[in-house]
Amino acid sequence: MPRVSRLTALALAPLALIAAGAASAHVGHEASTGGMLAGFLHPLTGLDHLLALSAIGLWSARQPRPLGRAVPGLAALGMLLGAGLAWGGLSLPGVETGISLSVLLAGVLLAGLVRMPAGISAVLVVAFLVCHGQAHATEMPVGASLMAYLAGFLLATLGIGQLGRSVGQALLHRVPHLDRVAGGLVALAGGVLVIG
User: Is the dihedral of CA 136, 194, 48, 170 positive or negative?
Assistant: First the structure.
């Protein structure tokens, strides 16, 4: 099995396992089973989260190898930091605006094929996801286990980021301008989110 296909399969495996459980879930079942399903589904059902994570994953495919490989983990770190701040009692102002701006800026980075020093790129990825982590933390279902919910949304974050990276590695060299077109569409969606 080629390396990219293996990485894609690894990224999708948790999605398949959770989807199987979701098919038999009842209303409120997410909280009663510890909250992992609710945490996992949150990044997948919020278009803003999905767009930002996918764009960052695609963008990482064009970055130098050490940074590119680290991007999904850096995204999860940003989510963890944002959630930790929220659960610690520190609510950042303008979280929804920050989320919308992160979608817009992730699209611009992707469309512009932007490459920066690794340290600046790493800080940007973490910063982009802090507001997303805040939103996830504040939307945790009542009665859910904090650790299960956290594990769920971190697993989804890693999976979406790695899937974006794998798709980027597989297709960016075969489909001319895929990253520019995808980035433009994500930036457009981010702009609509910022305005709306």
Answer: negative
Residue 156 CA neighbour count, 13 Å, CB half: 25
Q: 41-98: per-residue pLDDT in tens?
A: 999 998 999 999 999 999 999 899 899 999 999 999 999 999 999 999 999 999 999 9
- Kindly report the pTM of this predicted structure: 0.80
CA dist 165 and 120 (Å) reads 19
Distance between CA atoms of residues 69 and 169, nearest Å: 11
Cα radius of gyration (the chain): 16
Q: By CB neighbour count within 10 A (0-12 exposed, 13-18 middle, 19+ buried), where does 12 fall?
A: middle
Residue % of the chain over a pLDDT of 90? 71
Neighbours of 161 (CB within 10 A): 27
AA letter at 181: V
Q: Which of 4, 23, 22 lies closest to 68, judged by CA?
A: 4
